[in-house]
Write a structure and sequence with these properties.
This protein is an alpha+beta fold. The chain has one domain: Cytochrome P450 (Cytochrome p450). It contains 17 helices and 13 strands. It has a six-stranded mixed β-sheet with strand order 1-2-3-9-6-4, with helices on one face. Strand 11 and strand 12 form a beta hairpin. Helix 7 crosses helix 17 and helix 9 runs antiparallel to helix 13. The radius of gyration is 20 Å and the shape is globular. The protein starts with a strand and ends with a strand. This is Cytochrome P450. GO terms for molecular function: heme binding; iron ion binding; monooxygenase activity; oxidoreductase activity, acting on paired donors, with incorporation or reduction of molecular oxygen.
Length: about 375
């Protein structure tokens, strides 16, 4: 059995590479001791993401492990199957329009430029100074969250991605605080409507208060943390590969290719949301009993050499799409376009504003945040 110990959390890729070759479907113990089945190969993960025999509804769970989430926050899109999922996602999609996202482009560009203005010229931290605050600015504007309240979400999110079982009490406290705030925010928006996505969701017919609160939680958590991780990885990749950075600046390499390869190379959300086997199922010759908790490793799938040759290399010229960083099927991330745009704008702003930016210590290993749920840089120090 695979134990997701400290070494695995710190650098999962060597272990995942072995599993891809030798044991693509295996028993594993999560850092909190929960027993799971881990699926790693690209073809298996992609198929499983749309397999109706794998449910997101925890009523199919055989172990009924307690969640740190308050019951209300558990009722979000990634914890439900159709038809409830279809009903709520349709409402989200109607509010989360391409026009609304595109309308934020200039705000994002200006926001990135202003964040770059504040960076010190020597040993600036691009995670703390750009990758983290930009998505918080964007999702805060999109949902209409007061600027003075936004730092709370950064603190809450940092607590929630911690893998340490000893942090369970802090996680529950953070969730309780976030839940109380979101309930108050929904009621405030209902009383004082604004031209933001949250107001649009409130005025859409068909969402209860609890569904609204759970939905806003999901949009905040996914829209902030995952995007920040993607920005940081794209910046790291360009700084480590100055040839690619130069090609972006001269127009011979699209930033979109860099962003997609960064999302594949280091996938921000390491595992898809857990599934439960509705019946006994067989994946890659391995039988998984009904009621089992199944984790689909997006990180492993995106480095499967059967799909992506030389998968450990950052190669924006590989010309192969199809990465699973945003999932696949009906649960494909509703905020994918927004995340992609932020990654492209942030990296472009840095390259053109500071064309000579370089890593403070180019030989040092990247400092990744310790989390088994997400993969993002803790810091990225550069000379500008």
């Amino acid at each position: 059995m695979l134990h997701m110990d400290d070494a695995f959390v710190t650098d999962p890729y060597p272990v995942l590479a072995r599993l891809l070759d030798d044991e693509p479907v295996c028993r594993a113990a999560a850092p909190d001791g929960t027993a799971v089945w881990l699926v790693t190969r690209y073809a298996d993960v992609r198929a499983a993401l749309t397999d109706p025999r794998l449910s997101l509804d925890n009523r199919w769970s055989a172990d009924q492990v307690d969640s740190s989430l308050p019951p209300v926050l558990q009722g979000h899109l990634l914890n439900m199957d159709s038809p409830a999922h279809t009903r709520i996602r349709r409402l989200v999609t109607s509010a989360f329009t391409a026009r609304r996202v595109e309308g934020l482009r200039e705000r994002m560009r200006v926001g990135a430029e202003r964040l770059l203005d504040r960076l010190p010229p020597d040993a600036a931290d691009l995670v703390d100074g750009l990758a983290m605050p930009l998505p918080l600015l964007v999702i805060g504007d999109l949902l209409g969250i007061p600027a003075d309240d936004r730092d709370h979400f950064r603190d809450w999110t940092n607590t929630l991605v911690a893998p340490d079982p000893e942090a369970a009490q802090r996680s529950r406290r953070a969730m309780a605080e976030m839940h109380a705030y979101l309930v108050e925010l929904v009621e405030r928006k209902r009383a004082e409507p604004r031209s933001d996505v949250l107001t649009a969701l409130i005025t859409a017919d068909g969402l209860s208060r609890d569904e609204l609160v759970a939905l806003v939680f999901l949009l905040l958590f996914g829209g902030y943390d995952t995007t920040a991780s993607g920005i940081g990885t794209a910046l790291l990749a360009l700084l480590r590969h100055p040839r690619h950075a130069a090609r972006v600046r001269d127009g011979s390499l699209p930033m979109s290719a860099v962003a997609e390869e960064a999302l594949r190379w280091v996938t921000p959300f390491s595992h898809a949301v857990r599934r439960f086997a509705v019946e006994d199922i067989r994946i890659d010759g391995v039988e998984i009993p009904a009621g089992s908790r199944v984790w689909l490793s997006l990180a492993a799938a995106n480095r499967d050499p059967r799909q992506f040759p030389d998968p450990d290399d950052f190669d924006p010229d590989r010309g192969q799409g199809g990465h699973l960083a945003f999932g696949h099927g009906v649960h494909f991330c509703v905020g994918a376009a927004l995340a992609r745009l932020q990654i492209r704008l942030a990296a472009t702003a840095l390259l053109h504003r500071f064309p000579h930016a370089r890593l403070v210590d180019p030989d040092a290993a990247p400092l990744w945040r310790v989390s088994f749920r997400t993969r993002g840089l803790r810091e990225l120090r550069v000379h500008l």
